[in-house]
Amino acid sequence: MKNRIRTRKYAIVDLEATSSSSLAKIIQIGIVIVENGLIVDQFASDINPHEPLDDHIKDLTGISDEQLALAPEFGQVAGQIYSMLEDAVFVAHNVQFDANLLTEALFFEGYDLYIPRVDTVELSQLFFPQFEKYNLTYLAEALKLPLDQAHTAISDAQATAQLLIRIQEKILSLPRPVLVQLLPLADHLLYESRLVLDDLFEQVEDGLAANLELVHGLVLKKRKQHQAEKCFSQDFTTNIGLLDMEPRQAQVRFAEKIEQHLTDNQGVHFIQAKAGIGKTLGYLLPLLSQGKQKILVTVPTKILQEQILAKEGRLLREVFHLSIASLKAPGHFLKLDSYWKTLQREDENRLLNRFKMQILVWLCETETGDLDELKQKYRYQAYFDEIKHDGKLDKESLFQGWDFWQAVQEEAAASRLLLTNHAYYLSHLKDQDPLMQADILVIDEAQKILLAAEELASQTIDLTSLIQSLQSKKDRSDSLLRRRLYESTLFELNSLLTDFRSTGQREVTRDKLEQLHQNCLELADVDLLDLERMLAFYSYFWLEDHFQNEKRIAHLRASREELLQLARLIPSPKIFCISATLEISKQVSLADLLGFQHATSDYLESAFQDNQELVFIKDLPDVIGLCLEEHACFLVQQLEKLLAGQQPILVLFTSRALLLAVSDLLELEEIPHLAQYKHGQADHLKRRFEKGESALLLGSGLFWEGVDFANLDQLVLVISRLPFENPRDRFVMKINQHLRQEGKHPFYDFSLPMMMMKLRQAIGRTNRRPSQLSQVFVLDNRLQTKRYGKQVARFLAHDYLVTEASLDQIPSVIHQFFDE
């Protein structure tokens, strides 16, 4: 393809400087000349800034003061630099910094540099739309570009030159109709970056590749025709071998249990299996090898759903040509009609127009239309809210037969294996979606469907948005009576929020909602209909605050008094409930809480884990008694000790506030880390952590039970606090009331066992294969001070190597485990 490229002269420049400010001085320059898709010349030189470098710059670039002392001054090489650049297009990765700094330096030497500028960061975002990040190191790895010494000027310039060539090749590979639509939007690119498109437009060939189709001006990828499914062996180990994997002893025993129950008359089977045995293939392969039944698998989170699709699902597709569909809410998919309409209008926002361009390129590549493939969409969420699918398709749609959501539904109807998550499954089960009525249902991590069922039996109102809407209506109302009713409604809602945020009291008693309910009835406003129905139907109410894009959003939540009996809703004739723990306690089983009266239960003994060590610290402070700042300071002190071991460290928190407080202190100490709620979504942080971008990851929520770390050979896990559920949580309170009515003890029969289950799941997530070494530090003194601490220790000692140590012994304990 390179010999097809005919272009003007591009000068790719990279500078290293004394800082990133406008007052910085150049200390190193690299220039690479590209013409017609080829590197034709280059220049590299150190530059003496006549000032010492700070330690950060030395560490980043590897350049020393002694090295620069021997280098020429900028004025000695300015003429040569100018002669290389004067008739070229200036190209850089983040062109503003390099171009401004070099232009100013040349000006002071008597050279005026007036040449066009091109930014390869933005061009990369446009032409490689599915990448997570666009820094040069990431792009070099993703595109397999040579980058021998990152942050060395000539090495970075050479990598950027190869990146420019790759971008040029990508442009030439695009269909001409796509370029025709890109060019009118290209003026919204930074500086003169559109020149790269203009340069190549006439060289783009007419016609479309065989796998593409032009549909009302959009170039879309044709759907693949499914190949006939290959036969599965009746032998589990044979199937595992065909997937080029080695069977594990516990996995084989688990698969045998599945096989046994496939032919019996019992409809519901509970099987206990711990994380890390390969249970996904352990249940999928036996189920798939027996006939052609339709199988539906539901897992707790969308992240786990995507992990199974990307790992086990990909293998089954490639080897057995299995038809698989992943079910998600329509809002995850692009609605072509909505997107097409945005292309017909002119928008001034530069970022919005770049996303319009990016999607034009992406549509040539995507087979699913799943917007989750666009990792940067969070940067303009309002636009993606406009173009995401609403689950509806007009008969007059321009894209009838090409609609992505329609395709997902059709594929799901024809697929033998469906993957979804608990929330989607339950909501669509309630709506009597026929796709939820499979021959075999697998509920993976069945204990988590309890909470999802509670969400189904509850309702949520966004009070922040409602208050804004009512305020606007009050201001526009011509009726004095309606204005007074709106004022009263706003007063009631704001009073609820004020009390909640000043006292922290989440529960709202019904008497505090009576006036609000009366106002809703009198106003008969369509925007108050959901609130009116909530107040009439539910018996328990509470308030919650959530943070979205750094904005605090208040929600009013409501639920019924009784637990939802999930067993009554599920229509599947054969059900497998998989869980790490079936008996929550001697008095309470998972089957009881889900409402299954007649079910079999199988308990697979787990093997002792000698590649994982749990460390209980003896001399911990009272974590419950510490204030937030004290607890954060204590954790940072321990993390500094742990980082000396040079293993990746995952820290799990039960409190968002504590996580952010620790992150703030780490920033003050200039300790690199990744923090949930600060640096991205959980799945993105996981990938960055596994790639080694940072040795320290702070996580909560999904990281306790929804994210695996199989790609790391060594890992340290820090439990900042035992993961008890909040006793004030509405669901926990409902469970407790249910157990009390049955004469059971809520703490010992539910809260403590559920905590131990969650703790064991977290530990299991960091030990996914026999060759992986992981060490777990539990920094909660309640293991030593509470009566139940010994029970927890015995519970863990059954499966894991347990060691006791003092705080001072942490470095030596790490060394003994990983290095000896």
Structure in words:
It is a single chain. This protein has 820 residues and is an alpha/beta fold. Among the domains are: 2-174 and 190-200, 2-Layer Sandwich (Nucleotidyltransferase, domain 5); 459-559; 609-819, Rossmann fold (3-Layer(aba) Sandwich), CATH 3.40.50.300. It has 33 helices and 25 strands. Helix 20 runs antiparallel to helix 21. It is globular and about 90 Å long. The two termini are 53 Å apart. Its EC number is 3.1.-.-. Pfam families: DEAD, Helicase_C_2, RNase_T. It comes from Streptococcus suivaginalis.
Provide a count of the helices: 33
Largest sheet: 7 strands, parallel
- Principal-axes shape call: globular
- If you average the pLDDT, what whole number results? 87
Structural class: alpha/beta
Give helix % range: 40-55%
Top-tier CATH class of the domain at 609-819: Alpha Beta
CATH topology of the domain at 609-819, by name, is Rossmann fold
End-to-end Cα distance: 53 Å
C-alpha Rg (nearest Å): 30 Å
Number of strands: 25
List the strand order in the largest sheet: 10-11-9-12-17-8-18
The CATH superfamily of the domain at 609-819 appears as P-loop containing nucleotide triphosphate hydrolases
Extract low-pLDDT stretches: none
The CATH architecture of the domain at 609-819: 3-Layer(aba) Sandwich
In percent, how much strand structure appears in the residues?
Answer: 15-25%
Structural topology:
Elements lengths: L8 E9 L8 E10 L2 E9 L8 H7 L3 H5 L4 H12 L3 E4 L2 H13 L9 E3 H8 L8 H8 L9 H21 L2 H7 L12 H7 L10 E4 L2 E4 L14 H7 L6 H14 L5 E5 L6 H11 L5 E5 L2 H19 L3 E3 L9 H8 L6 H13 L18 H7 L16 H11 L2 E5 H9 L9 E5 L4 H8 L1 E5 H14 L3 H24 L3 E2 L5 H10 L5 H9 L2 E9 L2 E9 L14 E6 L10 H5 L5 E4 L5 E9 L10 H16 L5 E4 L3 H13 L5 E2 L6 H9 L5 E4 L2 H4 L8 E6 L10 H12 L4 H20 L7 E6 L3 H4 L3 H9 L2 E6 L4 H10 L1
Parallel strand pairs: 1-4, 4-5, 8-17, 8-18, 9-11, 9-12, 10-11, 12-17, 19-24, 19-25, 20-22, 20-23, 21-22, 23-24
Antiparallel strand pairs: 1-2, 2-3, 6-7, 13-16, 14-15, 15-16
